[in-house]
Amino acid sequence: MSKLWGARFDKKSHPLADKFTFSIAYDYRLAKYDCIGSIAHAQMLGKQGIIPKADAAKIIAGLKKILAQVEAGKFKYDPTAEDIHSDIQTRLKAAIGKPADKLHTARSRNDQVVLDVKLYCLDHALHLIDAVQGLQQNIVHFAKTNRDVIIPAYTHLQGAQVVLLAHHMLAYVEMLERDKGRIKDCFMRTNVMPLGSCALSGTSLKTDRAYLTKLLGFAETAANSMDVVSDRDFIVELISTCSIIAMHLSRVSEDLILWASKEFDFIDIDSSFCTGSSIMPHKKNPDVLELMRGTSAKIFGNLTEILVLLKGLPLTYNRDLQLDKPVLFDTVETTQDMLVVLAELFVNLKVKHASLASRINEEGFFCVDAMDYLIKKGVSYRDAHDILGNMVKKCLDKDKKISSLTLGELKAFSPYFNEDVKKLFNPKMSVNIKTSLGSTNPNLVNKQLTKWEVSLRGV
Description:
By secondary structure, the chain is mainly α. The protein has three domains: 19-105, Fumarase/aspartase (N-terminal domain) (Fumarase C, Chain B, domain 1), CATH 1.10.275.10; 110-358, Fumarase/aspartase (Central domain) (Fumarase C, Chain A, domain 2, Up-down Bundle); 361-425, Ribonucleotide Reductase Protein R1, domain 1. The chain has 18 helices and six strands. The protein has helices at 15-21, 24-27, 31-47, 53-71, 84-96, 109-145, 165-190, 209-216, 225-230, 233-260, 287-311, 324-347, 353-359, 367-376, 381-394, 407-413, 427-432, 442-457; strands spanning 150-155, 158-164, 192-193, 220-221, 267-268, 350-351. β3 (192-193), α8 (209-216) and β4 (220-221) form a beta-alpha-beta unit. α10 (233-260) packs parallel to α12 (324-347). 37% of the residues are buried. The model has no long low-confidence stretch (mean pLDDT 96).
C-alpha cells in the first residue's frame, strides 16, 4: 500500500478509513497528467540546482516510461494505493531507486492535484469543442440535404407558422456555437499554472515557476498560492458549461422524440438508434434520445453537488475537495458521449416528406402573413389582428378554407382584401416572403448553411 505520508503516526490507518478515503478508483484518470506535471517539475528542480541534475534525469526517464505505458493503454493502477499520485511515486521508486524520493521537493499534493485536474480539464475541453463541432457539422449536413423541406413550427406546442426544416436545424447549430464559446471561456480561466504553490504558502527553495508555466504550456502563473490550491471554480465552470450543453441536447432530443411519434410523423430515426418492446412487436422506441434527455438530469445534479461541496469550505485545502473529481469525470465524459451519439444519430435520420407535406397546408399557419398584407396597406397592427382573428373564428374554426372565400366574402372582413391575398395561404409562399435578417427565407437560410459549412471546416 503506497502513501506519501505516515512517519508522524504511531499506527497504521484502519482498513475502513483507507476504504473510505482512498481515491485511486477514480483519480487513476489523472495518471497521464500526473506524469506530465512531474516531468516538468523534475526538469525545473534540476535546472535550478535544487536536486542534482543526474537525479533529475533519472526521475524524468523513469516518468517517461510510466507515461508511455499510460498512453499505450498498458498502465494498470494499483487498487491498494491511496491515490494515483502515490501509485506513480511508488512505481517510480521501484524503477529508479532513491532519486525518486527527491521528486516531491518544492511541491505538495495540494498543488500537484490541482495541476493534474487543470491539465485534465484543459485537455478534455478541447475534446468537448471537437465533439460539439462534430455534431454541428452533421446537423448542417442534414439541413443541407433537406434544404427545401418545410415544416410546421410551434409555440406552446401549438401550430404557429411554417419554416424551413433547415432553419430549425440551424437554431440548434447556433445553440451549440454558444456552447463552444463557453468552453473556450472556461479554458481561458483554467489556463493558469498552480505548481510551486506547495501546501498553501509557497516555498523558500529557489524554484522557477515561470519556467514551469512555459514547460507545461499554461498562459500564466497563479499569483496567489492560497487561492490556487483551494480554487475549484474552473471545475464548477466546466460542469456548468456541460450542464448547458446537456440542456441543449435534451431539447434537441425532445424535438426529435416528438417528430418521430405517429402523431407528428415528421422523421424516421434509424433502427440502430431505437429499441423495441418486450410485449408490443410493432413498437420502435426512441430510447437513445429518451436516455439523452434523462441523462441531462444527472449532469444538472453534478453541478448542484459541486456547488454544495464548495460553498462552506474555508481556505485553503480541505479533503472535501477530493470529491470534486467523481462529478467532474462523470460530467465531462458523459457529455462527450452524448455529443458523439447524437452526432451519429443525425447521419441516418430520414425526413418523411409525404407526411410533412400533408401537415403544412393548415391555413392557420399563414394568418400572420395575411396580417402583414393588411399592414402593408395601411391597416394598424391591432385592427389587422382583430380582422384575422374574426376570420379564424368564422372560417378555420368551422373547417372552411380562407383561400376558398369569394372576393365579396373577403371584403366583408376587410375592404383592403383583394384576390391576391389567397396566394399567401401557401407554405412555399410563406417562407419565401420573409425578408428580415435571420428569418426562414430560403435565400437567407442557404447563405447561413454555406457560412456554417465554411466555418465548421475551419476555413
